[in-house]
Amino acid sequence: MKLYLFSFRNHGDFHEDCVNIIMNDLIRVMEPRYIEVWGKFTPRGGISIDPYCNWGRPGTKYEQMAEYRLLNHDLYPEKVDNR
């Protein structure tokens, strides 16, 4: 997993795209009912970015949960205390 994540270090894509690629790869490998991926990229030039994406299996309660979580997502990861 560490080597996989490090492969994005020089990926050359937008951070949001990297997080979506990671999520899609995890969905393919793990076949989860629900998944969230939250990237925490350290600042370069003083600007940090923390892209977030989630997915719930279509046609289940997890699809509705994903929509709810996305619409009510806390944009400040430093304040999240459930990690």
TrEMBL record:
The keyword Ubl conjugation does not apply. GO terms for molecular function: preQ1 synthase activity. One of its GO terms (cellular component) is cytoplasm. It catalyses: 7-aminomethyl-7-carbaguanine + 2 NADP(+) = 7-cyano-7-carbaguanine + 2 NADPH + 3 H(+). Substrate binds at residues 15-16. Its EC number is 1.7.1.13. Keywords: Cytoplasm, NADP, Oxidoreductase, Queuosine biosynthesis. Pathway: tRNA modification; tRNA-queuosine biosynthesis. It comes from the Bacteria. Its main location: cytoplasm. The keyword Transmembrane does not apply. SUPFAM superfamilies: Tetrahydrobiopterin biosynthesis enzymes-like (SSF55620). It is found in: Cytoplasm. GO terms for biological process: tRNA queuosine(34) biosynthetic process. HAMAP family: QueF_type1. PANTHER family: NADPH-DEPENDENT 7-CYANO-7-DEAZAGUANINE REDUCTASE (PTHR34354:SF1). Catalyzes the NADPH-dependent reduction of 7-cyano-7-deazaguanine (preQ0) to 7-aminomethyl-7-deazaguanine (preQ1). Belongs to the GTP cyclohydrolase I family. QueF type 1 subfamily. This is NADPH-dependent 7-cyano-7-deazaguanine reductase. The lineage of its organism: Bacteria, Bacillati, Bacillota, Bacilli, Bacillales. The gene is queF.
